[in-house]
Structures are given as C-alpha cells and as structure tokens.
Amino acid sequence: EFIQKKFSQHLATVGSLGFGLLIGSSVSDKNTSSTFIFNYVPTPPESDGPEVSTITLNQLNASWVYEHINQVSKMLPGGVIIVGLYLFCSSQDRAQNTAKIYKLLEFVK
Predict the structure, then answer these.
(1) Whether 15 contacts 53, CB under 8 Å
(2) Residue from 97, 43, 40, 36 nearest 69 by CA
(3) How far apart are CA 20 and CA 88, in angstroms?
C-alpha cells in the first residue's frame, strides 16, 4: 500500500512522459507464478538532455534506457530484479511508437 501511494504521488508530477523501471521479485512453483513489485525507479534525464517528463516517447533515447537498466541491475541485491517497466504517455504517442515500446521491453528480459 505504501508503494502504491508513493507511486500515485509520483504520477501526479509526471509531465507528458513518465518512464522508469519496476523493481521486485518473481516467484514460481509447479502451477503458479507471481511477481511482486517492491519499488519503482524513474529513468533520470541524460546529463546533456531535457527532463524525461518534458519529452515525447519518440524522443526517449533507447540506449540511455538500456544503460539505466544495466546500472540499476548491478546495484540490486540477490533475489531482487527488474521485473518490468512503467510508461505513461498520451495514447497518440503510444500508438505512434509501438515498435519502440516493444524494443524497450526487450531490454528487461
């Protein structure tokens, strides 16, 4: 519940684009699989670029996202992984960038 409230507060501050990583753990047995989300990590702006919240999905640099994923992965303790991504953008932006979204999702595998 704490994470949900914190995440909702974060979303209220997001501009035209909200993007980041979901951190958690996956547990599976013979019949079921469950994923638990512990926290979220917003993707920071590139050092020489604009804030992520001020750009469109088309302007999001895939190599920067990949670097963010690699850096966060190295800092996580055992058993905690990047379980997914979160993305908030306009429906028009999403429709125009479906291939890019799938490319970004492949980085998490």
Answers:
(1) yes
(2) 43
(3) 9
What whole-number distance in Å separates Cα of residue 72 and Cα of residue 22? 11
| Chain mean position to CA 70 | 13
Give per-residue pLDDT as tens, 57-100.
888 888 999 999 999 999 999 999 999 998 888 788 888 888 98
Q: pLDDT tens for residues 15-51?
A: 667 889 999 998 888 888 888 988 889 888 887 767 7
Task: Show the beta-strand stretches assigned E in 10-96.
Answer: 18-28, 33-42, 81-88
For 101, residues 6+ apart whose C-beta sits below 8 A from its C-beta are 57, 87, 94
Closest CA to 60 of 19, 99, 94: 19
Q: What backbone phi and psi angles, to 5 degrees, belong to 7?
A: -65, -40
